[in-house]
Amino acid sequence: MSFRTPRARAAWLGTAHGGTHHWTQINLTGILLVPLTVLFIFPFADALGSSHEEVLEIYRSPFNAIVAALFIGVAFHHLYQGLQVVIEDYVHHKGWLVGALVANALVCGAAGFAGVFSVLKIAFTA
User: Fold this and answer.
1) Alpha-carbon distance 80 to 48, whole Å?
2) Distance CA 11, CA 42 (A)
3) How far is it, in rounded angstroms, from Cα 37 to Cα 34?
4) Which residues contact 83 (CB under 8 A, 6 or more apart)?
């Protein structure tokens, strides 16, 4: 028999105390995406319909390459965090939860790496 109240039994249980950090990160990446999206769209719109050489020339500019790499990296990190929240909220079976979280990390990480690598390859090849 326990003399603890229901609130005392529930205190410090159920969370990993990382909610504030996760909330701050996802909001920070969301705020960062606003100017990065605006700066990314203009060179991207110029590149649409252009020849291969013109597209390479646009993204060989250091500013455009940096903005594109930052945009892709921040966007995929934001996607990873958002999908993580959705998975944790709606997947209740432990095995499926772990599998979905691992798949989320691998897919978002691989796609983000491939995007940033592609931009850097364009920027640094002559």
Assistant:
1) 27
2) 51
3) 5
4) 104, 108
The two three-digit tokens of residue 86, written as one number = 């959705």
User: What pLDDT score does 93 carry?
Assistant: 96
As given in the structure block, the two tokens for residue 84 are 């993580």
Q: Which tokens in the block code for residue 38?
A: 């605006």
pLDDT (tens digit, 9 = 90+) per residue, 54-100?
999 999 999 999 999 999 999 999 999 999 999 999 999 999 999 99
Tokens at residue 113, please? 């790496």
Please report, to the nearest 10 degrees, the dihedral formed by the alpha carbons of residues 111, 115, 120, 123 taken in order: 170
Task: Specify whether the CB–CB gap between 123 and 65 falls below 8 A.
Answer: yes
* pTM, 2 dp: 0.82
The SS3 call for residue 5 is coil
CA distance linking residue 90 with residue 71, whole number of Å:
28
